Amino acid sequence: MDIKTFKPIRQNAFRYWKQETKRIRMKRDSDKEKRRDINDDYRNAFECRWQFNHVSHLVNGGQEMHNSIFCSMGDWGMHISDLLIDDRFDKFKFLDECESSPLFRHYTRILLCVSEILTDLQNLLEILGVNNPRAKLSTTGTEVQTLITYINNTCKHKLGDGLKPNKLHIDNNHAPYEFADAGVKLGNPKVIPVPSLHSIIDTLIVAYKFVDKHLEDNYVKNYVDLLKKYETKMDSKVFPGPLVNDFH
What we know:
Blueprint: H1 6-21, E1 24-27, E2 37-41, H2 46-53, H3 57-60, E3 65-67, H4 68-76, H5 78-85, H6 97-127, H7 133-136, H8 143-156, E4 177-179, E5 192-194, H9 197-228, E6 231-233
Parallel strand pairs: 4-5
Antiparallel strand pairs: 1-2, 3-6
Helix pairs in contact: 1-9, 2-4, 5-6, 6-8, 6-9
């Protein structure tokens, strides 16, 4: 049996995240310390593309404006990169009883951050007056809801009112973790399922792409004044333009 480790799963997910968001992981320049990826350059990412393309001065003229929502979301997105670059668990095996527990905790941290970003994207659509925004963030209308429900039951509200059997803390007598990334069904009637890391990141990417397309199609016609309340004047020296080189 091929015993899968976390490393290739993590690396592929991080590669996909960078590719689809066009984030670049920056490095320390100091020679006195080990070079280590510490921050994203996200000037070509979704959030900063919104900042470059969907602010009022581009429509009405005047001094350059900065939308706090867009770039604050860009900052917050680095939580995902931080977790996907964390290589401490690379040699851990999904099917090892001892090592599966810290892997589950790491997946939980990723899921919690993904949940927060999905909620931010949903709230942005609500601000824009989009009907049924959670469904709109999904390819088929259900992926985000399915993932959020899983996160709520497994990572956030794990006990609830104590009556729902799908909550993590209900009837969990040291149940094993069944990772989709392990590619193995445990055959145990009581397991804690864990979705694949790629599917988690893909659900987030699809949501980003919907918001990106929606702003592109509707900003000038519908949202200039609506989003202006979140803008402030910004010195262009503090807020440089997008990168012209290809991401890596």
